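Q: LacI family transcriptional regulator, please. Structure only.
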Amino acid sequence: MARRSRAATIADVAAHAAVSPATVSRVMNGRFVGDPAVAERVRASASELDYRPSHLARSLALGQTSAVAFVVPDLANPAFQAVLSSLSKTAAHDGYRVLVADSAESPSDEPLLAAEVRRRCDAIVLCAPRMSDDELTALAGQLQPLVLINREHTGIEAPSLSIDYQSGIATLAQHLYDLGHRRIVYLEGPESSVSNAHRLDGIADFRRRTPDAVVERLPGGAGAEDGRAAATAVRDSGATAVLAYNDLVAIGLIDGLQELGIRVPDDVSVTGFDDIPFARYTSPALTTASVPHAELGVQAWRRMIALIRHEAPGDDVQFPPRLEVRRSTGPATR
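A: Structure for LacI family transcriptional regulator:
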């Protein structure tokens, strides 16, 4: 049989199977309710002609794209990558793809980005959105079906999955206190980060329990370069321990401190937050609060597919972090 010079079309399959193009479309979309023998003949013709249905045409016919959006503030962060990987793999089992949009830590760009990407898919997952509560409330109606990760909002009808950052940072602070540290620095995250506000609440809880401890707040950020840039300020603070906003900031800080001749943990103890894969392989291995990122992705998809199918999505869940003590923390020496 001669090789075809062009891709087979739906009309080619219809002619080969002696049916109408509409019948081919219904068979390929799983909506044919006629004679099973006709459906089998169409599928056989499609196979013989090596017919590949157009995803765009199928989306138009069904009124859906079989795709969901995942909007994230910084895709370079391995914590968000882990959530995305789990979400994508779980969604694939139900025949869905995940489209990714990165807002680059820009609260002002995020609402427009979310609205734009939502128009290209069936639903959206907002992961750690940086926009304000007012903006999120105003936008939520346009985004449904919507699932929130790391953002609780009682004024929005959307399933929410979050991490208990408040108790997690308090546990890390208590760990440092138990090691004898009384002067601690907190390297803050992005000002627009809701999880940073929760961390500050946790530090306030810790301070109330331990009035003899001092926790100084220093500007930080969310990336390794932010941590590295803060090394001199940490040195000058006189603190013996640092609570970094996340693991990336902690890893950058350790590198910056070591370049200044400051030993970790001999001179200064450092903790992170997230337990990204790199955390256990840094030198020294990083003490951190471990977050179940893979489970966040799985549970986010379970709630999303329920919304798409007009089913109850289940209860909101807040996951408690787990303290992982490694070699970046040690007893206070001064």
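A: Brief note, in case it's useful. The domain at 165-291 is CATH 3.40.50.2300 (Rossmann fold).
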